[in-house]
Amino acid sequence: MDETSLIGATVSSAIDTVVTDLSGEFQILVSSADSWIAASYIGYEQQRVVVSDLDSFVTISLNLSNNLLETAVISASMIEQNIAESTVSIEVLKPSIIESINSKSLDETLNLLPGVEIIDGQASIRGGSGYSYGAGSRVLLLIDNIPALQPDAGFPNWNDIALENIAQVEVLKGASSALYGSSALNGVINVRYAQPGSVPETKASINYSYYDGPKDIRTKWWDDAPYSLGANVLHKHKFKKYDLVAGLQYFQLESFRQDTKQKRGRIILNNRFRISDRTTAGLNIIGNLSDNSSFIFWENALRGAYKPFVGTEVNSFNNRWIFDPYVTHFDQFNNRHRFQGRTYYTDNGAANGLDNFSLLFYGEYQFQKKFDQSGLVLTSGITGTRTNINAGLYGGATYRSSNAGIYTQLDKKFGDRLNVSFGARYEYNSLRNSDILVEDGTFTEEVAEGFVQEAKPVFRLGLNYKVGKATFIRTSIGQGYRFPTIAEKFTTVGLASFRIFTNSELKSEFGWSSEIGMKQGIKLGDLYAFLDVAAFWSEYDEMMEFLLTGKNGVFGFQSTNIGDTRIRGLDINFTGKLGTKKLPITFLTGYTYLDPRYKDFNDNVANSSSEDFNVLKYRSLHNVKMDIEATFRGIAIGINGRYVSHMLAIDEEFNLFIPGLNNFRSVNNKGYYITNVRASYKFKKLKFSFLVNNLLNAAYTVRPALLEAPRNFSFRTDVSF
């Protein structure tokens, strides 16, 4: 049983109401005539106990609620609330599913969620992003509410996430810049780490996977089976005034893709000091060292499908460290003051002029006040970021970027049915670059020293109305904003027969997203579930995409403002559990439909697309996902599947110069379906798992010219004590 202290739980008696402090403790007055105490907390079942000795110590244990509508989330408004009462669409990943599917990095698990796609490492929510060549994300990654994208490229480093210590992952769909600033244009992925419980806990796991031969034997280049090996250990301990979480992870990959290897090690160290019943302070540390070899696209679609095209190989040694200090204080009026910061050190040493170094400093002060009588919660704050970057990837120049923002969020409950949320943010961005001079053979590119700055306000408004006992209707609209990354503006590098060019004139993206949705709780016999249906509409101005261009007689790609775009669609999610206590069955299913278009399908855009009709590149119109698991006497059997329709449009130039791509896409034009199965047995503190991924051995690509893994088999052992 998890015996984590609950901070801010409500405790009531017949004559008094209090909330628990930072240690989960409380003092309350109790009537001698009616000596009961009731405790409640969002996401938990209410518990009521009778007190026989009015001066005694009482321990109250709350059980997690089985009602999925009462899942507690924080990302939508920066306050704990039931997921059913949120004004925007939120998906939640629990650690159990991460462990069950043997995820080696968080992006593998995110692919289970309806409306979420990971394309070559970049997250896309409801089609908001396509394939961006590893530069610029419209989805903001947070680690415990602090931005965690790599500062130079706006790229999420999924391997920095300690899967073994996740409490839950919250995925917020839609523009969230009013709360979280630039890069939250398309949504937010917030990783929330677990804290120690009252009982020390140690857990460890080891996993091994090996890859079968592909269905088309011509694409097999190896004699010995490719494999991966991973292990991790985590310890959580609560001392008198000190909480400790410490973990180590190691992973090694000898890939099914030729010349693709990885060795990485990660350390996490979370320290929390309970200075008093009103003040805590802490320092969280993540360190990640990795040695990587990979390539960008294949040699050809047949015998070279798992081999690199000459000149696209990338070898790098990555050294990343994150230091997060924080202080949380509740004043005498129970207002919350939080100071938090981040130092993010990145040193990516690479050959072929692809090296980059960055050092980011982030700071935030947040104030939160709850007006209990009126049901109003005010959250306001100020943020600041400073980044220093030097990289061969960006012409060997020096860059200085700054970001500052001030925000406020108002959440108001009207009675027991209506929730209203309003947010506003004013954000400033600036970027300074030194001179750039690139001389590569006969090719020369120059960029003069420059400085750009801008500031924009963004707003959001959302409503949630409880129509019936388990029926909630919501609607929201929010603005989004994204300042271009250094990678998008200043990347200058040659790869194979093409180049990536700089574009110092690149403008910011600005847009909005809206939705109307319904969440319906369902209880029929042993079925506990909810059905969530949402229609959404998003528009983006000055959207950035890489287009084919030429400089000094050399062809290549350049990030360009292509104009305005519109994405409409439908998101359906049916999730729940059924069966008995002896035979519980959990399931997650979802379907997403997209209608992604350019608002002005002009000749410049049309000439760059592989299709002659209006559709955004690198989007699939239909996406179906499901995961089902049944458990009986410690034995669990699970299956998950994913259907993704054909990616209609890509860059036309890829069809022209990447060998075999056009023919591969013509033959494989029905989309792809992937089936994975798993089985596990849990005996006391041990758990043994066996998994088969890509059961039918499908040959498919998520993005062009990079063939995905053939059928593979995994063995995993978990132990806790």
Structural notes for this entry:
By secondary structure, the protein is mainly β. It has 2 domains: 1-65, Sandwich (Immunoglobulin-like), CATH 2.60.40; 68-438 and 451-720, TonB-dependent receptor, beta-barrel domain (Maltoporin, Chain A, Beta Barrel), CATH 2.40.170.20. The chain has 7 helices and 41 strands. The chain has a 22-stranded antiparallel barrel. A 5-stranded mixed beta sheet has the order 7-14-15-10-11. Strands 2-1-3-4 form a 4-stranded antiparallel beta sheet, with no helix packed on it. The longest helix has 7 residues, at 661-667. The mean pLDDT is 90.
The chain-level structural class is mainly beta
The share of residues in helices is under 10%
CATH architecture of the largest domain: Beta Barrel
**Radius of gyration of CA atoms, rounded to a whole number:** 26 Å
Percent of residues in beta strands: over 45%
Distance between the termini: 12 Å
The CATH H-level superfamily of the largest domain is: TonB-dependent receptor, beta-barrel domain
Number of strands: 41
Give average pLDDT, whole number. Answer: 90
Helix count equals 7
Largest sheet: 22 strands, antiparallel, barrel
Low-confidence stretches: none
CATH class of the largest domain: Mainly Beta
Query: Remind me, CATH topology of the largest domain?
Result: Maltoporin, Chain A
Number of domains: 2
Large-scale geometry: globular
Structural features:
five-stranded mixed sheet, 721 residues, Maltoporin, Chain A, mainly beta, 22-stranded antiparallel barrel, single chain, 5% helix, Immunoglobulin-like, 2 domains, 7 helices
